[in-house]
Design brief:
The structure is a single chain. The chain is an alpha/beta fold and 390 residues long. It has 15 helices and twelve strands. The strands form two sheets. A six-stranded parallel sheet has the order 3-2-1-4-5-6, with helices on both faces. Helix 6 runs parallel beside helix 7. The two termini are 15 Å apart.
Length: 390
């Protein structure tokens, strides 16, 4: 069967789709991916065919932060024009890929665009949600802007004004229900097409893992600090704050620079800075994980069975901070509000015996990575077969 997989965002947004794409490829299917241009190398290194889809993800972050977008109501017509043009370009790419496909799989932020393409071709649509999307409300202005783009796409495709319900066949919840108890209670009849599979991750090792694990083994378990694809505006100040807080607590720090430039940071004995690590191998060897609140990193810390502190850089962090607090395995706050004193207090709060014990318990209840991938791939195969037989 032929599967088309499309999503937009940074590395953490793309990885779950790469993971399930790899599994489908392993099962003998044809898999084509549409991702931002700056994710092409990552996807292709995983053995998957990919085409560029929209602007670079970092360029979009720059657009969001530009002076033009700071007053979106005043610039509404320009913002609508930009989104509509980008939506149309993505739609053209997806139309080309989906011709002859058995199923289109898309992320929550591409679901409507992909649904129109799936409806045009009469094939099933599956969506993959890395958190309960109803918990993230972008507001009326976002809905107004995207509605303009959707209407333009449907007119261009010759589709009726109202979307057809048949294409919305499956919404995979790629996280554990344990993290959001009761969320399915509000779905009613839709719950059956929103199965939970657990987080989808590659768990890929990196070239730095052996060196990092050797450094860890030479001393006490460190606290991991990482901010994923989110850029830190002042890396030197951030490292100085982390270093001072860990000195005060008598801890070591392992800092993953990710998208930030930490090359000019002075060396400190109790702090190790690396570009990237394989979290599946490294997290279990750490004492705690401090991160930006991405879905994948949160799942990795929960599976590792160690306390989590989320220092959020983007709006999704509130969802995962609330989840780790509800589970009693950690806490969260906004990164911009973090000081050395606050960091020390937060770390002390997650080092309590109760929090450490609870983190170990929660880890035993998380879906295993291989099981998550198998469930997701089974669901996609079944949905594609049903669509073919209809």
């Amino acid at each position: 069967m032929k599967f088309v997989v499309a999503n937009y965002g940074t590395r953490g947004d793309i990885e779950p789709f790469v993971a399930v794409g790899q599994e489908l490829l392993r099962r003998g299917h044809d898999v084509r991916m549409a991702v931002p241009n700056d994710s092409l190398g990552f996807v292709e290194s995983a053995g998957l065919a990919a085409v560029a889809y929209g602007l670079d993800s970092q360029a979009v972050e720059g657009f969001r932060q530009s002076p033009k977008i700071q007053n979106p109501i005043g610039m509404l017509s320009e913002v609508v024009e930009h989104v509509t043009r980008t939506w149309a370009e993505k739609g053209t790419t997806l139309m080309s890929l989906a011709d002859g496909a058995d199923l289109v799989l898309a992320g929550y932020n591409q679901q409507t665009l992909a649904a129109n393409v799936a409806e045009y071709y009469g094939i099933p649509l599956a969506a993959l949600h890395i958190f309960p999307t109803q918990l993230l409300d972008f507001g009326w202005l976002h809905r107004r802007i995207t509605k303009e783009a959707e209407d333009a796409q449907r007119r261009a495709l010759g589709l009726p004004e109202t979307p057809g319900p048949a294409t919305r066949s499956l919404e995979i919840q790629a996280y554990d229900e344990l993290c959001f108890p009761g969320v399915a209670a509000n779905w009613g009849e839709q719950a059956g097409r929103r199965p939970f599979v657990g987080a989808l991750t590659l768990e890929s090792p990196t070239d730095a893992d052996d060196e990092v694990l050797s450094w860890i083994a030479a001393g006490t378990p460190p606290i991991y600090f990482g901010f994923g694809s989110m850029r830190i505006t002042s890396p030197a100040d951030t490292v100085a704050m982390i270093s001072a807080a860990c000195t005060q607590l008598g801890e070591r720090a392992l800092i993953c620079s990710g998208a930030s430039d930490f090359t000019e940071i002075p060396h400190v004995d109790h702090v190790k800075v690396v570009d990237t690590v394989g979290v599946a191998a490294v997290f279990p060897a750490c004492r705690a994980v401090v991160h930006h609140g991405g879905a994948g990193t949160t799942a990795a810390s929960l599976r590792a069975g160690i306390p989590t502190l989320i220092l959020g850089l983007w709006n999704e962090y509130t969802i995962w901070a609330a989840a780790v607090e509800r589970l009693k395995v950690g806490s969260g706050r906004q990164f911009s509000e973090t000081t050395q004193e606050a960091l020390v207090a937060d770390l002390r709060s997650i080092f309590t015996p109760q929090c450490v014990t609870r983190a170990r318990e929660v880890a035993t209840r998380m879906t295993k990575p291989a099981e998550s991938l198998a469930k997701a791939a089974d669901l996609l195969e079944d949905t594609a077969r049903q669509g073919r037989s209809n």
